[in-house]
Amino acid sequence: MIDIKNLQISFEDKIVLNNVNIEFPRTGLICICGESGSGKTSLINAISSLIEFKGSIKFDGIDIGTLNDKEGATFRIKNIGFIFQDFKLFDNQTIEKNVTFPLSILSNCSEKKKVHKCNELLRLCSLEGYNKRICKTLSGGEKQRVAISRALINNPKLIIADEPTGSLDEKNGDDILQLLKRFSTKSLILMVTHDLELAKKYADQIVFIKNKNLKVEKNKNKFESDETLIISNKERQKKSPSVPFGFAVNHAMQSMKTKKVRSVLSTMFMSMGLMGIGLSIAFSNSISNDLKRSYSSLIETASISISKKQDNAQKMVNVNYEDTKNLIESYDKEGIYECGVGYLNNFEEMFKDVNMFYLESGSQTYFLDEFSVRYINDAITLNPNDNSILPEPVRRMENDEIVLGLTIYQIRSICMKFGIEKSAQSLSTYLESNEVKVVLEVSNLDWEYNDQQIFTLKGFALSTEPYIGHTNRMFNKVVLEDNMRFPTTDEHDLKEFPWVLDKITYISTQNNYEFIKLMRESGVTENYIFEICNKNLFVNQLLDKEPNEINCLIPYYAPETKFSDKEIGYIETTSDYLKNPIVYNATGYVNYPSNLISGFANRTYFSLSEDALIETIENNASIEFKNNEKEDLQNGVLYSNFSNNFANPIKFDSDLSKISSGRAPIDLDEIVISTGLLENLKIEETSSEFLYISTAVKEINKRVGIFNRQYITSKLKIVGTVENDKNYIYHDKHWTEDYFLLQNGQKAEWLIPTSISYSLDESVDVTSIVNKLRRAFPQYDIVNPLLDINDSVDQLCSAISIFILCISFVSLVISLILLSSCTYLHIQDIKKEIALARCIGINVDESTKFLYGYTVYSSIFALLVSFVELTFSNFVILRFSAEVLTLPFEFSISFVAYLVMAAACVGICFFSSLISAKHIRKIKPIDCLKI
Question: Residue 647 in contact with residue 597, Cβ under 8 Å?
């Protein structure tokens, strides 16, 4: 039946079998033996048309080497049954589904006949009555019997068994061989085995593979079965073998049951996308002019917002040293504030040729590799009582003296260079009796400039990071301006030469908040604004420091865009009805009155539990762009941002007259909150005297589609409450400006007050007040949302419709991506089963039915869920608009919405299948044997 001539099989230029010539009979059990890697499995794979080869293999006259993929699949399903060492079953299907699978591909017989033939084989394999058992629940011996039944269901001429007893114990292995021996009276069985004893016991012939060739031995002592095998005849075959779509759908359903979480998430997101389409159609058909009146119910009280019409950004200019010094001297009555300077130049670029420090003592020289002229600019002002300085604390230093902060490694290296014991104490003793000079050398050949500054080493301190210290806060100015004579400028963009120093002035304070309050009370802030910075004059983001550790401010001249306290006071004199001013800025607390939006500019989380807040910000630290708006909140944590203005966000108010218990806050880290906020933040009746606030201050791209958020968390003491069921926090009108500057490290230019709002009693004639203000202050934009709503509602309605349609489109794209991703994962999960089906005898086109079965089942299920969601949403929206908002607003969903959702579902299913089909087509039959 099988005639092999001049067979050669090789892999990557390695010949496995060479010049093989052999014939196999129509029936009998033939064992193929040999060492691992000798080519046993390669031989049967070639006979099965699963791998390429050279030479000729003819099976009943069919030249196997000439078969294409489709012809090879048809050849296998009609002529070959496979039995594998690891069974290779559809584990989540029943025994009946597994056994009848090849018959379903090949035959058009009725389901009743399929079951009858299955029962017949199961009886022969001692599995009678096991039809409905799930394969993954079977023992190894039972699984192998199922595999044998499946191999025989199409009455194949050839059964290929690759190590069928390799994973079984001795008893089960012997039973399987006896079973195969019985079947060998009807078909040819080629069995690959390492067990020579079993081969000699049962095989009619034994084929030994050695040295890339075959040797055949007849087995005279073989076991003879005394039973006659009776199997029913073949059924009428299909014109073209195909997988029943019902099997593919059933297989998808069983696979989804094993991946419940993934299936639920996929269904949920897809159904939400489909529901979004239905809602967009419903909104476009239902919104009418009555929406104008509905907006009025969203505003608790009448309000007026005032902002400057001039919105051109102006660059902030640093206050020069003399003005800063005069400012401090005018208002510092106790001498607690000090003025200093720094330089923003790139010193490494300025002194690109030579920029170094070294020590000189006698004839010895030691180069301080880590030091450069930048350390002069960043010199630390020493505390006279600092006992860490060796040999002794310094009270006052001359300008040619210096203190160095040295690491332990540097100290040991210096000691070794000076020939003393390698310890800080030895170096201290050395300084007491020897003069050590510190020399700074700089050079820039392009400028034809070089200089040398010599200092006496007054002392040193053990430090984790090197530094230069001096008792004179202006030491950097003395060296760079007075000694090295570099010119300076305060107007950094206008400097004429590259050697001009970009000078910046700063103020050292004991408490930044107290200093700013003093300046505000004195009227200084009308002309100045202040930026928090660290010792190197960079805006400090406070990510790793407490606010009280940073007591340094840079003064800037206030730009014209600033809304000053003088202007605010002048506006308030025009009407006695203007109450509770709230100051807004760009990155602290924002206001968009025309859109009825105000709130915290950045994502801000509130909690009474520090642990719950920390867990929340950890959960929201890494965000996908497509899930940018999704917040993962722990119990007892609330989230607020101006973008969720209509979802009961946390608002800020300056009306401290409403305090019902406690007192008004007197410091930046004190706060008053509403009773509603207190109740919403409580966790299991626990209480806390502190409110923890965490704000997102920076977003960093991590990789494509992912970015990390960095947060700053502050602890505020709750000193009072206000009776209000809404979520509110209370402080003075400048709190959001000061808090985000001093506690969050936001840039001062982003916190400049640009607008202000006032609340009004509802009984007041808002129109007359607005008109009066507009006449008095034509330079301002004065807005009342209730008056302007009728002019903007048409645009707003159009924006809503477009927004919902965009969201629906995004939801559809997300649904498509999600379904495609889940389909891809499903393909990876069932890759071995698809490869098994290809091996048994389905072609590549038929294998895509496993994909279509999954996408169709998933899509239909998601569509049904979306129908339920849309119907429920209709009920909720109607109830909410009628009973909660009491709006004259009719919302209805037409049958068209359901039709469009169904069409969108078909589209998602189609494109998802189209995208994923290429992954199915990459799976080859031989993959079954590799997995």
Answer: no
Q: What is the DSSP string of 266-305?
A: HHHHHHHHHHHHHHHHHHHHH--TTHHHHHGGG-SSEEEE
pLDDT tens figures, 132-182: 999 989 988 888 889 988 998 888 999 999 888 877 788 888 888 888 888
Q: What is the DSSP string of 102-147?
A: HHHHHB---HHHHHHHHHHHHHHTT-TT-TT-BGGGS-HHHHHHHH
Contact status, residue 597 vs residue 792, Cβ threshold 8 Å: no
Asked if 62 and 75 touch (Cβ cutoff 8 Å), the reply is: yes
Neighbouring-strand partners of residue 343: 503
Q: Which of 716, 608, 628, 725 is nearest to 665 (CA)?
A: 716
**Rounded Cα gap, residues 46 and 534, in angstroms:** 75
In the chain, pLDDT over 90 holds for what percent of residues?
25
pLDDT tens figures, 731-752:
998 998 999 888 888 888 888 8
Position 763 pLDDT exceeds 90: no
d(CA 863, CA 898): 9
How far apart CA 78 and CA 560 sit, in angstroms, is: 88
CA distance 179 to 723: 85
For 56, the enclosing helix (H) or strand (E) is strand 54-59
Q: Which two tokens stand for residue 411?
A: 């100290």
The phi and psi torsions of 41 (rounded to 5 degrees) equal: -65, -35
C-alpha distances in Å from residue 887, one per residue of 605, 776, 793, 891: 32, 37, 16, 11
Contacts of 487 (CB under 8 A, 6+ apart): 497, 499, 500, 501
Smallest Cα–Cα separation from 827: which of 105, 262, 235, 317? 262
Specify the amino acid at residue 221: N
Q: Which residue has the tokens 């604390």?
A: 393
Judged against a pLDDT cut of 60, whether residue 797 lies above it is answered with no
Cα angle 406, 408, 414 (rounded to 5 degrees) comes to 70
Centroid of chain to Cα 765: 51
Specify the pTM: 0.52
**99 secondary structure, DSSP code:** H
Name the CA dihedral angle for 861, 867, 872, 873, rounded to a multiple of 10 degrees: 110
Token digits for 681? 């933040």
Pairing of strands 205-210, 706-722: unpaired
Helical H segments across 522-564, by residue range: none
Q: Spell out the residues 6+ positions from residue 319 whose beta carbon is closer than 8 angstroms to its own.
A: 327, 505, 528, 555, 556, 557
Please report, as a single letter, which amino acid is at residue 284. Answer: S
**Which tens digits make up the pLDDT trace of 311-320?**
555 677 888 8
Alpha carbon of residue 718 to chain centroid:
34
Residue with tokens 């807040």: 613
CA distances (Å), 448 to each of 442, 451, 494, 850, in order?
A: 11, 10, 23, 78
Residue 159 sits at the vertex; the CA angle it makes with 155 and 161, to the nearest 5 degrees, is 145
Residue type, 163: E
Structure tokens at 220: 């005279």
Closest CA to 118 of 104, 105, 106, 108: 104
Angle at 283 (CA atoms; ends 912, 887), nearest 5 degrees: 145
- Give the residue from 62, 927, 33, 66 showing the smallest Cα distance to 41: 33
pLDDT digits (tens, 9 = 90+) for 556-580: 888 877 888 888 888 888 888 888 8
pLDDT at position 537 over 60: no
d(CA 206, CA 24): 11
Residue with the larger pLDDT of the pair 314 and 253: 253
Q: To which residue do tokens 């500057």 refer?
A: 741
pLDDT above 70: residue 95: yes
Model confidence at 3: pLDDT above 80: yes
| pLDDT at 630 > cutoff 70 | no
- pLDDT reported for residue 543: 44
Please identify which residue in the block is written with the tokens 């203190």.
403
- Taking 90 as the threshold, does the pLDDT of residue 686 lie above it? no
The answer on pLDDT for 915 being more than 70 is yes
